[in-house]
Amino acid sequence: MTVVMLMLVVLLKSVESMKLMKFINPSFDHCLTSGHVQRTITDVSRLTCSSACLVDEQCQGFCFLPPDRTCLITHTDQTTVLQALQETAGAVTYFIELKEGFVRKNGNGYRLMQSSVNHGTGRQACWNLGTNMSLPKNEKESQYIREIGKGVTVWALADDDPHEGTWKNTDTDEVLTYVNWMPSEPNGGTGENCVIEATANIKSWIDVSCASSYWYICQYLLY
Ligand SMILES: *[C@@H]1O[C@H](CO)[C@@H](O)[C@H](O)[C@H]1NC(C)=O
């Protein structure tokens, strides 16, 4: 009886700590190689290790070594890490569950789509993955877009058609509360109704024709 109750308490505690996000355990007896370790925390439990990953907005997963209660946190995406895992006796590696090719930045998964398409085609391609074309809602999300975009120019999910000058979310028609225009933008009038982000720049938005071709970033909510 006591054993059963104890197991129940342990189970409930794990569920509580996991409610923010799901971890997948590839169940390898492997740990992260040093090139993929962002941070090492010593003498903690596995639950403390998973919580440390969840509160770290760039954490993609962790490896826990039970014998010496060591926690290794990684910021590298799991596809890269899985190729580099090295054997370490008794280690358990967990990754945050993400769609293929996506990287976690706080509450969202992001993926750079490396094909030049028009605005409508990019939106559709993100929907096909069960995601949306990216649109930063604040300064911090703009920073994430710059990290994912690595200096290339990408579409944003925004336009001002049919009300010239009223910039809105293309999918929801909600008027934007955050914008990040380059100096002297937008300047294209009715000929330039869509938005691109030059991710090398802090102030990055430019209005262009929706029929132009650019790469894009897909984004979805993790929790
Ligand atoms: C896509 O955007 C819509 C509208 O903002 C939102 O309700 C939905 O949760 C988003 N989808 C994903 C998968 O994040």
Automatic annotation (TrEMBL):
Species in which this protein is naturally found: Petrolisthes cinctipes (Flat porcelain crab)
Span of the signal peptide: 1-17
Keywords on record: Disulfide bond, Lectin, Signal
Domain C-type lectin: 105-219
Protein known as: C-type lectin domain-containing protein
Matching SMART domains: CLECT
A Pfam family annotated for this UniProt entry: Lectin_C
Mitochondrion listed as a keyword: no
Gene Ontology molecular function terms on file: carbohydrate binding
CDD domains named in the record: CLECT
